[in-house]
Amino acid sequence: MNIFAICYYAPPKLTPQAIQIGRQLYHLDGKVTMLHGQDAEFPDAYDQYPDFFQRVDSLCVHNPGMFLKGRLLRLARRVVPTYGTTPDGLGRWRALAKRAALAHIAAKRPDVLVSFGMPMSDHLLGLDLKRATGLPWLVHFSDPWAGNPFHSGTPEVLRINAEMEKSVIASADQVLFTSSRTLEMVMSKYPNAWRARAAVLPHAWDMENFGPAAPQAAQPAAQPPDARRVIRHIGACYGARSPEPLFKALARMLERQPGALDGVRFEFVGPLQKIFLASAALASLPPGLVTLCGQVPYRESLRLAREADALLVIDAPSASPSVFLPSKLVEYIGARRPVWGITSPGTSADLIAEWAGSPDACAAPDDIEAITRMLRVGLASLEAGVAPVLPEDVAQRFAPQRVSDALKGHMQQAIDRSRAG
């Protein structure tokens, strides 16, 4: 199969899109050309696949950036709120990428067109190419577009993004989402005939970066020199995805039992917004209980995940059941470690409970008392020294070759549906 993929962020950029979609394309059985951007916004720290562009052909289009920047951009958005927000700031890149894509398609005649978002400009480019070439088109959403609870904007911005989403889904031959809740949320507002073209494809981990397959019973992690149990959060904390609920829960535990956390360290691997470091709860904690490691290369983050006693998911609070499946949670499962979640009920909480075999491994971000109970249960389990039995069938659901093979199957469905008219 000759595949033309649109994915703005590509390895070695350290972004969720480059990691997850790069992983799926790397393992895909087919001839893949990846149209991607190039800018300096994110570091080149994703070092999982040094041979990525030996297996996947690169069609790189430099991003000239938005015409207005800084103060002028802020002023422009006061006058024209839709500037750079419908759907994002990649409009100039999209115009350049369209010319490069049409030339490639004319020369190489791919069998199928695939676009991955976010950024959602990838899908608008895919829509342009679908209309220009008639190629079978598969659309993959890592997050919802219109109706995303974490995206705000004026009524006009929200309306235009909803219209864009509708145009994309109406024209796509196959539509993929990373969770069943996301599929239901998005497709419930469209005709049943459109819904029939939608399916779920989860994220994947990559076992090659964790060494040999782990047995079903996770082995106790190697102890650090100070013999503390290490609970790690790997990834960025920003915006509503705040560590403050954890800090407050730890402070509450120490108020009630000063020695409760003597043998434990909570470690953050990845960037934290400076505002979180000004937390009064964090300042009240004893030195060494919470440590900050900063960002590390991707392979190093995988090693740290494998060596942790437990891994921590922190999600933004949600008033309704969360539809999101964080790619980091899937990677935690690939590491075969216990996972604890500060996450609202929904997709993440369901998966963590399934992996742990108990709902006690999760607590909502806005319920500090529930977080303290979750921590007590988890720490007691670690203290007991009994390796948990983690369900290997759950881990295999997200195995990279399985997910990539499923992606190829969905591409074939897009081709068949396009041919059938």
What are the SSEs and their pairings?
Blueprint: E1 2-6, H1 16-26, E2 31-38, H2 52-55, E3 57-62, H3 70-79, H4 91-108, E4 112-117, H5 121-133, E5 137-141, H6 155-171, E6 174-177, H7 180-187, H8 192-195, E7 198-200, E8 229-234, H9 244-256, E9 264-269, H10 274-277, H11 280-283, E10 290-294, H12 298-307, E11 310-314, H13 327-334, E12 339-342, H14 347-356, E13 362-363, H15 368-384, H16 392-396, H17 400-420
Parallel strand pairs: 1-2, 1-4, 2-3, 4-5, 5-6, 6-7, 8-9, 8-11, 9-10, 11-12, 12-13
What does this 3D model show about the protein?
- The protein is α/β, with parallel strands linked by helices.
- It has 17 helices and 13 strands.
- The chain is globular, with a radius of gyration of 22 Å.
